[in-house]
Design goal:
- It is built from one helix and five strands, in the order ββββαβ.
- The protein has about 110 residues and is mainly β.
- The protein has one domain.
- Strands 1, 2, 3, 4 and 5 form a five-stranded antiparallel beta sheet that branches.
């Protein structure tokens, strides 16, 4: 993964826009990884339940590329590592509680 392509990281506070059309108000970041493990901090995030989606944007178009059936064609992942194989992501399964002190969320990318 190092220096191959950008990671697109988006937070969702509900199902709207998941998986690839977040509202402009949803926190998001683009980062070029410089190693196998990446740490990203979202400052001033409101307490609550959030789902995190990560996409490795191999072709640089800024969105999830899917095949005709709708399966992602680029590495991707979600909080709680809840990325079903045969259905779209379920936001309820990916929600994590973020308190006042923040929370560390580990996500493994799934290869297509």
């Amino acid at each position: 993964m190092p220096n191959q392509s950008d990671l697109l990281v988006t937070l969702f506070d509900g199902a709207q826009g998941l998986p690839d059309q977040p509202a402009v108000t949803q926190p998001s970041r683009k980062i070029r990884p410089d190693g196998v493990t990446v740490q990203l901090i979202f400052s001033n995030l409101a307490e609550g339940r959030w789902a995190v989606k990560v996409l490795q944007d191999l072709n640089g178009n800024g969105r999830v590329n899917c095949n005709l059936v709708g399966f992602p064609q680029e590495p991707c992942g979600a909080s709680n590592n809840r990325l079903p194989k045969l259905t779209p992501p379920n936001v309820d399964e990916a929600l994590v509680d973020i308190g006042a002190q923040g929370e560390a969320v580990t996500i493994e990318l799934r290869q297509p």
